[in-house]
Amino acid sequence: MSQKVHYFSFYLDEKMENGREAHPGSFTKIEYVKKALIRSGVNLTLISTSLAESKAGFLNKKIFKISESESHIYLATFRYKGKVFNKLTLMFMWLQIIWYVLIQVKKDDCVLVYHSLAYIEPFKLLKKIKKFNMILELNDLYHVVGDNLLHLKEKETNFIEIADEYIFINSLVEKKFNQGKPYVLSYGNYEVPKRVNEQTSDGKTHIVYAGIIENGRKAAELAVKSSIYLNEKFIMHILGFGNEIDINNLEKEIEEVNKQKGYKAVIFHGRLRGNKYSRFLHSCHIGVSSHAYLQEEMESANYTFPSKIPTYMSHDLKVVSPNIPCVFESPFAEFTDFYNEHTPQAIAQTIKKSAEAISNNTDLKRRPSQLIKELDINFNRGIKMLTRHSVGVMDA
User: What is residue 314's three-state secondary structure?
Assistant: First the structure.
């Protein structure tokens, strides 16, 4: 009989995004872990706890049988006008989680939880009243994000410690929380898509920033502004998602840069998914990860990992990144050029350095996708170990 795994997250399939809050930055990683679990031979139920958007009304529970070994459940949710409904919506989610685990999860099942502050209360209670194996997928540490969340340190740390096994986002997180329990490292999505098109060969270097467009993080804005310091042999492409205001502001910034340069130095393509996204990345040469960290945010940078970096490398892109420990001390440093200052000038200078190395073919002893394939093999071995409750650890 196959091992049963129940995977709790805020994942949304494309057909379910209407009316529910979407967090696209996490979807690629969740999809990868989901596929790895199925390949390991488990019977998987993915439980989405995605909440209703503002004023969405009541959204019914949905169940989809994807295959003999995979089912998706979208819990019911609601949201109406008024702050009081925000708390009621959260409590309704908690009640459904508790009910599901009490009724559906058997003694030998695994419960995989994508770490979120919203899950602390129900799972802390459930671990006290029911015996089950809990794997915590720890991709972010929230209490280090800023002073406004520092009061959650003890609560979050205690929650992390109740897990039986872990999927850690990087080696720094593992060192901080490893208590001798089984774990596997997963920096992101290790799928290497089939190449159906070659890199653009028009004599220009095509750079891509793919990710969230958010005024507070400045990542997309820095990528756009770096084009001011590049010549006509470089084209910056922006793929991304965000709220309407931030996207409109970025488009205005792009218009200003292009006007200043006198040609289309920056092109905004919106949000791409699936094969369109993959084909586009394959057409580029360099991927930019340009999140700007304030000094007080540097600790938080140690306990996460830019998911775009493994994605870029799976498409054989060189990467330009700020010099932060979680990247510098990772396997991905092999194919990354680092900059030390969060300025457009520093990013542009590093892009030129990467482009020169690519042109001269001086630093690539192997392709980035070969590293990703190695990490994929190790992760698949490790996730199989976790779901079978084996003793030991695996790094991926």
Answer: helix
